[in-house]
Design a protein that fits this description.
Strand content: under 5%
Number of domains: 1
Protein name: DUF4142 domain-containing protein
Organism: Methylobacterium oxalidis
Pfam families: DUF4142
CATH topology: Ferritin
Helix content: over 70%
InterPro entries: DUF4142, Ferritin-like
Keywords: Signal
Number of strands: 0
Largest sheet: none
Oligomer: single chain
CATH architecture: Up-down Bundle
Order of helices and strands: HHHHHHH
Shape: globular
């Protein structure tokens, strides 16, 4: 229990720089000419793709975990969903703050609404959300955990791909740390999946 909390806190701290430079990448494409001190214009193609792909996968994890808070029956599944929601809501808030420089600084997390997350899901994310919404109570926990395993495997592949092609030292270093945390999450999810199989 304490180990999971510690891992979640570390994962959130490690993930934020990744999502922060994702916001800068989006700013770069729309307002490069603004004199805001934004250096994202120099971001390489690999960095921009890595940021966008990581952000998309995180959004799916947030929305599906919100569903799990309402539908999960197994205590460990519900606990994992609680931590995942808190982590992804924080990251989404950081993204919004970084995109919009007019947003006042705040120590409070302003979570994105369900409407915002659902609108910005990609096709795969929408498909997963629909599947979980329709899942019967007895099958939901297993389907959610399997979806999280697939999502984390995708996140891991995104990090591995970037580590082979990335050029920015800071982003590469953060990605190395993030890769380790994703592997930890996968191990936890696989343990939960085994427990569900024994149930």
């Amino acid at each position: 229990m304490d180990r999971r909390r510690a891992l979640t806190a570390v994962a959130a701290a490690v993930s934020m720089p990744i999502f922060a430079f994702s916001a800068f990448a989006q700013n770069a494409s729309s307002s490069v000419s603004e004199k805001s001190g934004n250096t994202a214009a120099a971001m390489g193609e690999a960095e921009a793709k890595h940021a966008a792909d990581t952000s998309t996968a995180g959004l799916m994890s947030l929305e599906t975990s919100r569903i799990a808070l309402k539908k999960a029956q197994n205590p460990k599944v519900k606990e994992f969903a609680q931590f995942e929601v808190a982590e992804q809501e924080t990251i989404a808030d950081v993204l919004k703050s970084m995109r919009d420089q007019s947003t006042p600084a705040s120590g409070q997390v302003k979570a994105p609404s369900a409407e915002v997350t659902q609108t910005n899901l990609d096709a795969k994310g929408k498909q997963m959300v629909e599947k979980l919404q329709k899942a019967e109570a007895g099958a939901f926990d297993r389907e959610y955990v399997q979806g999280q395993i697939q999502g984390h495997q995708q996140l891991l592949q995104i990090q591995e791909t970037y580590l082979k092609s990335g050029k920015d030292r800071e982003n590469l270093n953060v990605t190395k740390l993030m890769r380790g945390q994703i592997k930890e999450h996968l191990a936890l999810l696989q343990d939960i999946e085994k427990q569900l199989g024994r149930g």
